[in-house]
Amino acid sequence: MKLNTPRKVITLSILLGLLLILVTLISVTMGSVKVPPLRSIRILFESIFGLRGGGSETDRAIILSLRLPRAILAGLVGAGLSVSGATFQALLRNPLADPYILGVSSGAAVGAIIAILLGLSTFSFGLPLISFLGALLTVLVVFYFGRQDGKIHPNTLLLAGVIIGSFLSALIMFFISVSQKEELHTIIFWLMGDFGFSNARAILIIFPYILLGFFLLYLRSRHLNLILSGEDNAVQLGVDVEKLKLVSYLSASLITAASVSVCGLIGFVGLIVPHAVRLIFGPDHRLLIPASALIGASFLIASDTVARTLLAPTELPVGVITAAFGGPFFIYLLRTRKVVKTL
Amino acid sequence: MIEVNSISFRYHEDWVLEDVSFRAGRGEFVGVIGPNGSGKTTLLKIVYRLLTPQKGEILFELVPMKKMERVEIAKRIAVVAQETQLLFPFTVLETVLMGRSPYLGHLMFENEKDLEIAKKAMEWTKILPFSERPMDELSGGERKRVFIARALAQEPEVILLDEPTASLDIQHQIDFLDLILTLNRERGLTIIMASHDINIASEFCDRLILLQGGRIYKTGTPEEVITKENIERVYGCEVWIDQNPISGMPRISVLKKGRS
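Output (structure tokens, whole complex):
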């Protein structure tokens, strides 16, 4: 019998973790400035073990201060968006749900654009902070309107999210139309999703939130399986559904807010990674959540590497790569009707 | 075992159930019948506390159910409801193992004992041969048996059935109900079944509750409840009642208008 056991989950997580390390290593060796792969890896290992060895200062700076932090950040965001997407798909019982479905991302975008228009540097501490606050504010407003008599009704919440998202999109359009040329370029790159803004500090800002959200969701992964067949069904099996929904929606929203605040709106990761993982490993969230996190991390690091190197020295926004790759892949899944039978 | 004491319930303005009281003793097979919208499904949902009545209370072995933890209720009352959603389908075995959920902690996986219980339940319901198949590849009758197996894996004392035979042909209806009856007779499980099918209810249930517009119109044995007068009054159509020639239980025949 092919049941999921703790041993299976741990083994697969280790294997996928190794894949993630491999992808990260490949990513730091690639870039517009040529640092030979072996030297890059030696620089990495020397810094991990506190040794000071070969390699020029420039090489060390490129690897340790630029490429590695960027890969770690891409990994965190990829993991966060994938876990958040998987959760929203389960809670809303909607295969088309993604981390941005409740309008959290639009709130983050408004925050970021305001920061940009205020003249804050894209590398500053302030931009992700204001963006994060914008996202959190949106979560509060959506939940205020999406709840009725103390209960979360998925459809009401979804409608509240879509409508508030549309309103915020109008604000975004307004800001774009009144902004100057240089700001416009920054705003558009942010809206497409780009790690070019980020720096090592961003990792420390978002890591606690993504970790907390992941932990809260993983604790409830077995109950997410039950709610997949309907809320009544979960109640029949002894789940406190209202508490499950409240904690899960908020955790997934928190992860989304933290993720988008440092790199903008990277599309498709949170939609396709959970579907792809379900195809390979099945729908059990006890495996789906950690596997989505690790595969999502690898996928986004790989996409960002392509974005950095495809037209080097020009960098593309990573959202262009995820969408260019994710769109056709998703169509393929739909055509082969493997995503869901009813779609 | 279960004592429903004058409960009233409403979703919004109008009462859906009003002043409903009944008892289901240990090992009893109770049927709830009544026209569409008479409150059968709502009543079951109140018994497993999906809904909380505004008035009255329900006692489970003399303990008020509002004081029971949800997990505690799920260990004692299992529900086989109308069709559930099958987005991202699990396999049969995974679905049956979900019945062990009330016994598992947050991060726990099912152990050997849970697997053993699930396998026994699948053997009982004759679904073991296709335990690896995904749920969306099963027929309606097979799926019903999977949900019975899931209910058995909960090791409950009571099983609630909501229109269990609604989408089944007569062979599958009888297979299913024979299985339920065996559980009731051999394991002493208490069964409460809401049904549209008056003949089925008459044939299988010890006692019937006839609902009309959210109130109990009549309770008693099938012979006491299924009379021409009661049924015509509650359902508002003309019927003919005689006896099933084999079992001797009341049997209902529908008539075209003006033929009686």
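Chain B touches chain A through 39 residues (CB under 8 Å).
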